[in-house]
Amino acid sequence: MKLFSAVTSSVIAILLIMSLSEAFAGVSVSIGQPGFYGRIDIGNYYPQPQLIYPQPVIIGRAVPGYQPIYLRVPPKHRNNWNRYCHRYNACGYPVYFVNDGWYQNVYAPRYREINRRPMGPPPPPVRPGYQNPPPPPPPGNRPMNRPAPY
Question: pLDDT band at 48, cuts 50/70/90?
Fold first, then answer.
């Protein structure tokens, strides 16, 4: 009986550890990808967003003078905003919910276009008026009229 309880508790512990490791797996989704939910910056690069509600939604005490926040959130979060606004640090802020179709068809492609990074290392900086000295010749190709440097 003791052996059975020891084996059972070991199996439960192993399963618990495995489930916790899966829960903390490093999954990263950034702006412009389909699974991203959160604050988006409209700026001057994007056309006016299509909104779910024409008026901003404010939960809690409104903070005067703050600019509205544009968010893409799942429908469940939008419908129960008073329950989820703290996850987006948006309680007390005027929030506009953007249409999912606008995000996927307009915002995300434009964001990826603007924030595209070139592949490879960046070129070395160029200083005005400075020229890099020529590289030294290979050891076997020393000019004949110069003595060896040692």
Answer: confident
- The count of structural domains within the chain is 1
Q: Beta strand 69-72 with 38-40: parallel, antiparallel or unpaired?
A: antiparallel
CB 35 within 8 A of CB 29: yes
> Which residues does 39 contact at the CB level (< 8 Å), separation at least 6?
69, 70, 71, 88, 90
Residue 105 lies in a domain: yes
Q: Are 52 and 98 within 8 A, CB to CB?
A: yes
Please tell me which residue, 8 or 127, carries the higher pLDDT value. Answer: 127
Which structural domain, as residue segments, surrounds residue 88?
38-116
Question: Does the structure show a pLDDT above 90 at 80?
Answer: yes
Is 90 within a domain? yes
Tell me the average pLDDT of the chain. Answer: 74
pTM for this predicted structure:
0.57
